[in-house]
Amino acid sequence: MASNVSTPPDTFVTSDVCAHGKPDPEPYAKGAELSKADISKCIVVEDAPPGVLSGKRAGARVLGSVSYTHLTLPTNREV
Question: For the whole model, what pTM was predicted?
Answer without folding.
Answer: 0.76
